[in-house]
């Protein structure tokens, strides 16, 4: 029976505190919990040397977890180095922060090879392999070198860098070549899809055989966009199960205080200073709102072994203290910050209680906070979403207050509008956004990608000659829904 095998750097291990689950890990958990499968990745730990490195296997609720530690060198060079000091800033238009080190690149390749080797060891010929994110651009190349013929898909959760950047980056061309060893490349937005198609065709001189299909040395790669969704029903259900008091705004001493929530990893791509500056200007020009509004920032310090992030964290705390020091009075501080990582349900309660959610990313693959905030609202009294036009979510959530976070005047205007928005307008915008979220949730995202991956398997292997035999070639019980979708489609 064929299985789904997912590879991602972070794995949300059951009951583990060690590996912090980010947006991707939560999405993968949701995506796998229905269909089951194997989840391969890093267990969040470090060991001294390769000899101490081994894969642990754990089975829980339809998912087999297959994780291993990284050596200290791999953690430094692959994770802190090439992934987060080269690729991450490159993909987020921060050329000024891109650092390149050939040794780190070598280790990145070595780690990609390590995980490819593990997958090759246990994958059956009809298993579907789905690799996630910028940590693993080269995995398919190693799988191919090891003789693997399975269809392998790749999904990039973050934006795709421009042609200019790939041209400038040493090893840029080689990485794009590796990327084209996948059968299907999934991007978050139409813009990212366009950029990826352009980069692959120009850099490798690949031939465009259809709108979203490239051919390179007899190998065909499909490049499409699949905006990642959330578990809308799950969020609504878990909030409905809670006691009414747990999710209603606190009606105590701060009865009229409006809350503006921000939930971000402390990352330079999140536009945290743009937001704080806009808030400070707003408070300065509108003293009547003092003690009436509060910005609740849930901030997870992130990647603190990377110097850029250490500096950013210090600047973040300094900026917040400055603003609080300038405006605080009586018991009120304009910004309260919480650094603890919250269980998912806790976070949903925070969303439900907040009047406004303010997302100010300067560049963001999707931003699932935007989607989760909307899904967690009370339909009878929903809050307002202020959403950066540079977040992938802005392609779907057009009924948010969409702003340019670098335009301080526009940010302040949006904040005022959000604070004063009448109930009828809040409800209308909420309903429109919910329609979008329900029309394409996390299950649709997974099914759409995997159906396409299975389809490319058919299209490329059987050359569209015998539809029925192609479909029955893929006999998974776990993927019966995909099987049916394939039959409908072909
Ligand atoms: O968006 C990319 C991503 O991998 C997300 O999954 C997650 O929110 C974040 O980055 C986690 O970063 P890290 O694994 O470096 O802590």
What does it look like?
The strands form two sheets. This protein has a ten-stranded mixed beta sheet, with helices on both faces. Helix 1 crosses helix 16 and helix 16 packs across helix 18. It folds into two domains: 4-229, 3-Layer(aba) Sandwich (Rossmann fold); 232-439, Glycogen Phosphorylase B (Rossmann fold), CATH 3.40.50. It has 490 residues and is an alpha/beta fold. It has 18 helices and 16 strands. Residues 458-480 have low confidence and may be disordered. 6-O-phosphono-beta-D-fructofuranose (F6P) binds at residues 9-10, 22-24, 133, 157-158, 302-303, 365.
pLDDT averaged residue by residue: 90
Poorly predicted tracts of residues: 458-480
Radius of gyration: 23 Å
- Put simply, the count of helices is 18
Sheet-strand content, in percent, reads 15-25%
Number of discrete domains: 2
Q: Portion of residues in helices?
A: 40-55%
- CATH-defined topology of the largest domain: Rossmann fold
CATH superfamily of the largest domain: Glycogen Phosphorylase B
Give the ligands present. 6-O-phosphono-beta-D-fructofuranose
End-to-end separation in angstroms reads 22 Å
The count of DSSP E runs of length 2 or more, i.e. the number of strands, is 16
The largest beta-sheet arranges its strands as: 3-4-2-1-5-6-7-10-9-8
CATH class bucket of the largest domain: Alpha Beta
Q: What does the largest sheet look like?
A: 10 strands, mixed
The CATH architecture assignment of the largest domain turns out to be 3-Layer(aba) Sandwich
* 3D shape: globular
Structural class: alpha/beta
